[in-house]
Amino acid sequence: MLMNALMSHPVEATLVFTLVVGVVSTLVLDLYAVALERATGIGRTNWGAVGHWLAGMGRGRMVFSPNADGLYTQGEHGLGWIFHYAVGCAYALMLPLFWGVGYVAAPSLMPIILIGFVLTTIAGLTLMVPGMGGGFLGLKTPNPIKLYGLVLLAHAVFTVGQYAAALALASLI
Fold it and tell me: How many percent of the chain have pLDDT more than 70?
């Protein structure tokens, strides 16, 4: 009954789906990053540095320019975290936008693989990594092959989070 009520309001259904799936899948990715760091010592993304990069874009710097001390303000950390979750929600929004609002009630795996894994991986390696100074496809990083493995694994975790959240939401509404 709740599903019928929500689905009769496509904007609201899309908004609920976007927020739930976007936030949950990004949170799953963050929890994975914490677990990976504890298990291997591989550090998590510095969202303060990402916020610093984003703020620099407003001043015409399209590629990350680190602070000399590597410390970033609370505002930069906040901006980086907001960006992180906003991007997760943007990827979730693409699903009902591209596959229709009916996707909210009946999510399927292939669209989530296309958006949650393929698109996020391409965007990460062609936009985020270069913007943060790693070069196109991470070719300026010390170990591009290691980067590819970490990116692929992280985006697979994000994809699983998207699918699990979409299925859980569909079963609840």
Answer: 95
Torsion of CA 21, 88, 117, 11, to 10 degrees: 50
Q: Of how many residues is the chain composed? A: 173
Q: What is the pLDDT of residues 81-95, one digit of tens each?
A: 999 999 999 999 999
Residue 90: domain span: 2-172
What's the pLDDT tens digit per position in 128-140?
A: 999 999 999 999 9
CB 148 within 8 A of CB 121: no
Tokens of 36: 């990976």
Contact 151, 120 (CB under 8 A): no
| Cα atoms found within 13 Å of the Cα of residue 22, Cβ hemisphere only | 21
Structural domain count, the chain: 1
Through-space distance between the first and last CA atoms of the chain, rounded to whole angstroms: 8
For 28, 75, 139, 168, the CA distances from 78, given in Å and listed in that order, are: 19, 5, 29, 29
Residue in 68, 84, 76, 88 with CA at minimum distance from that of residue 49 = 76
Alpha carbons 77 and 45: distance in angstroms, whole number = 11
pTM of the model: 0.92
Half-sphere exposure of residue 168: CA atoms within 13 angstroms, side-chain side:
11
